Amino acid sequence: MKKNIGIEIPGICKACGGKCCKTFPGLATPEDFGAPDRDLMREKLLKALISGRWTVDWVDQDAELYFVRPAIKGFEGSVFDHAYNGECTFLTNTGCELDFSERPESCRMLIPKLEERCDPQGYTRMYVSKIWKDYVDVLIDVAIEVENSQ
Fold first, then answer.
1. Cα distance between residue 139 and residue 74, in whole Å
2. Pseudo-torsion of CA 49, 52, 58, 64, nearest 10°?
3. Mean pLDDT by 10 residues, the chain (150 residues)
4. Which InterPro entries does the record cross-reference, listed alphabetically (predicted)?
5. Which sequence spans correspond to the domains of the chain?
């Protein structure tokens, strides 16, 4: 499956100061970690979660609705985190420290608007967690492995 890239509009984001990034980190999709190649996904998820700068969040644990997102500043190192707001760990004074192509899909697909709220293109927690559903076994396996190694 081809990774969605989106279009970066740094002038609008710079003028805004990253308000969305200060509220909540963007949501990653399985393709951000190499899906549908499960071995590549496992390798990339392992590296991301070990770094402490990415975390596993959820909508409903009983329904196995999990997803991956950057950690919130101050909560780096938490393999599982269900915080509802906070600043993205990758936000700096000059913008996102990740190259555009390495940002979570919801960040890349966001349509920034200077005079109004940016358009998230439907990338809600529920939408993204449903995309992860086919890979939840890999995600939880890797997360537990990282958590047990800490």
1. 23
2. 30
3. 74 82 94 97 98 98 98 96 93 92 94 79 94 98 95
4. Puta_zinc/iron-chelating_dom
5. 10-149
Distance (Å, whole) CA 131 – CA 115: 31
Could you identify the residue written with the tokens 């000059």?
94
Other CB atoms within 10 A of residue 4 CB: 13
Cis, peptide link before residue 25, omega less than 30° from 0: no
Token pair for 113: 């608007």
Q: Classify the C-alpha dihedral 46-61-130-127 as positive or negative.
A: negative
Nearest C-alpha neighbor of 135 from the set 51, 27, 40, 54: 40
For the chain, how many residues are written?
A: 150
Q: Name residue 113's amino acid.
A: K
Q: Which residues contact 148 (CB under 8 A, 6 or more apart)?
A: none
